[in-house]
Amino acid sequence: MSAPTVTHGVFAMTDNPPVWQLPADLVPTDGRFGSGPSKVRTGALEALAATGTTLMGTSHRKPTVKNMVASIQDGLLALFDAPDGYEVLISNGGATAFWDAAAFGLISEQSHHLVCGEFSSKFAAAAKNAPQLKDPVITETAPGQPVTHVTPDAGCDVYAFAQNETSTGVQIPVRRPEGFDGLVVVDAVSAAGGMPVDLKDCDAYYFSPQKCFGGDGGLFVAVISPAAADRIATIKASSRFMPTFLDLATALDNSRKNQTYNTPALATLFLLDQQIRWMNDGGGLAWAAGRSAALSEHLYNWADAHPLADPFVSDIASRSQTVATIDFHEGIDAETLASILRSNGILDTEPYRKLGRNQLRISCFPDIELTDMHKLTACIDAVLDYLD
Ligand SMILES: *Cc1c(COP(=O)(O)O)cnc(C)c1O
Fold first, then answer.
1. Architecture of 58-281 per CATH?
2. Residue extent(s) of CATH 3.40.640.10 domains in the chain
3. Integer Cα distance of 358 and 350 in angstroms
4. What's the CA gap between 311 and 192, in Å, rounded?
5. Which mean pLDDT values do the consecutive 10-residue runs of the chain (388 residues) have?
6. 259 CB less than 6 Å from ligand 1?
7. Is the overall model pTM greater than 0.90, yes or no?
8. Residue 217: CB within 6 Å of ligand 1?
């Protein structure tokens, strides 16, 4: 048994193993603050366990699973209040696979990308690496700086940006550039479900389930407009080489039958369906996005008021409401801070590794409880008192 041997402020030092232990009543009830994989509601996990022998291990071509896929599709169209004709495409491989699929099946000749961090740069790189496409036009903004929309270059038939750049915590409003008749393709991986959107402003709104949708990885979901479906069909009818796994026409064909081309992870589908139901039952997108807004507002207000912390994104309108990045002053080592939090069960607050800043990155996805966010900042206060 480890007994407290030393105390420092609110901490108790346990020996064997030596851990600075925060008092139990200060620690969040659920310590998962990662930006993906992210918190999965225990209620959803219990519902999954309760399916017993009826779901896991059964065919994805039979009604139990196909009805679940239909429920996901209908639930998303309702959640986003999608305009007539929009449909939900589901396939395997996560958003990363969608980038390559889009390079084959959604971009006709050339794309224009707003790049402001790691994820937005990856889609641009996928387009650049595709031999069938002209080099993309890239408009780059430094990490953490506000991103402004541009008029896509003449000749570009896809305009791509991330509604939330998860690596830096910068958000960009979803807009259709005036006069642009190409497709607006939005990386909404860490925004969908936690930020407002009007889908008529874009043609493909894609995401993976392991962020705001509190599910697990492995799938991509894209809500697409009739114009995007037409584009997919037109490119498919051309002579372009198309790897079957990345073929959006095949994916759409299967999605229309409430299936995926190859075997999906059933638990991932189940958890996604649970979270969509939870959001729709709770009050829809405005309700879910409102939860994210309240969580991030608390964090940014806390950081603004703290003498040792600042929001990384200085432009208030560009501060993400789903992924908050908080810088710490010199003299506070954020890595030590994150590791003390981790040893107290508060997980995955480390910054995006390649950004290389002295910061914490904290998810404000809708299923995190505001009371837990208040506890998190109280815990950080306690650790900062000790480190300072
Ligand atoms: C997590 C993330 C991705 C990658 O999603 P995968 O499912 O891992 O492929 C892409 N874009 C953004 C903005 C993300 O946050």
1. 3-Layer(aba) Sandwich (3.40)
2. 58-281
3. 9
4. 22
5. 60 72 94 98 98 97 97 98 98 98 98 98 98 98 98 98 98 97 98 98 98 97 98 98 97 98 98 98 98 98 98 98 97 94 96 93 98 98 89
6. no
7. yes
8. yes
